[in-house]
User: Fold this.
Amino acid sequence: MEYLSFDPKSKKLTLEECAVPSPSEKEVLIKVSHSGICGTDLHILDGAFPCKDGPLILGHEFSGLVQAVGSAVTAFKVGQKVVADPNTGCNTCDFCHGGNYHFCRLGGVHNTIGIFRDGGWATHVLVPDSQVHLVPEGVKLPQAALVEPLSCLVHGWDILNPVHVGTRILIIGAGIIGSLWSCLLHLYGQRKTVTISEPQVKRRRLFENLDLGFKTVAPEDLKGSEFDLAIDCSGSGPAMQEALTLLGRGGRLCVFGVANPNTEVKFKPFEVYARELAIVGVNINPFTFPKALSLITAMTDTYLDYEKLGIGVYSLKQYQEALTALRNGDISKVVFKF
Assistant:
């Protein structure tokens, strides 16, 4: 099989080949169709986010076809379209039993496929059968590759609700996550009260291809504005710090984008007290994959058109070109197609 190998020590990616692995008793071998690059992957490539020591295959957002199943696997058959939830827990600790496996000290982000186990930047990937999900009828494999980020949005949506129509909402960052959040808000009825803040002109123009009717501005144009809810999709400390000053009474800041672990934000506790502000975090996707599969069925081509979303499709061999385009803001996201 062909795969991208990442060495955390040298921070280098190399294209390599090896034999296709065989699934163990409770594993599914997936022939990858589409596999995305996430913002977290960029942090890992930069050495700013923890991952497995030693060579690793990144990629925790992927779709594909079942190529083989282990001897004890009964829920899946060869040829079925599937996606994989990269996260799981130990299933024994209090967090897991409480339905919060994303807080599990052995599972959650500490055991994620594509971060601490080999992932989908490869022609083939092994996944425990408990983490495999069938792709619904009518959903294409390119769209299915977006289920994982959408499952994280679903978790955030559950935390933030109720979000009433007409809520004044600020989306910070017009990358793929900001675009997907905007599509979700539009699906649920939000219209003229949503503003997108993005410093890069290229990304503002990419976002406008979605034609959602939302206002797109540069960060400096936000002065004098007031919002009920700000959703950070950038991971930028200064952007979040500025957003806190723009919240009205009872306003909320949702920290959704993955920031560098060393990023700090300053705020005035008196302002939090006086305006009863709230800061909430959203950490991955505990048990939200089934909801995301339903959501992607509802969104389909209306919202998940690659061209409108600014997604660039590349072969695995074009990884350097793909990363350059992504970092330059020429595209909102990279998806490898096999």
Remarks:
- The radius of gyration is 20 Å.
- The chain has eleven helices and 15 strands.
- Residues 289-303 form the longest helix (15 residues).
- The chain has a mean pLDDT of 96.
